[in-house]
Design a protein that fits this description.
The chain is mainly alpha-helical. The chain has one domain (3-65). Helix content is 76%, strand content 0%. The mean pLDDT is 92.
Length: 66
């Protein structure tokens, strides 16, 4: 784990209430990781529009209906 990742994890954990469970901590770290990944994908231009998703879903549904 990089030092920056460790600092970010500790910052997130410190923001939790004192009675947070281990499950709460795990979920928060997972969620934080997913958000960071998504922001990175946005920065890298790896996104699709709502219209592209809807078009893809329509094609997928048609192919499954056969």
């Amino acid at each position: 784990m990089s030092t920056n990742a460790k600092r970010a994890a500790l910052r997130l954990i410190r923001g939790l209430p004192a009675d947070a469970s281990l499950e709460d901590i795990q979920y928060l770290l997972y969620l934080g990781q997913r958000v960071e990944r998504g922001l990175g994908e946005l920065r890298d231009g790896k996104t699709v529009t709502q219209e592209q998703v809807e078009r893809s879903l329509r094609r997928w549904r048609r192919s499954k209906a056969r």
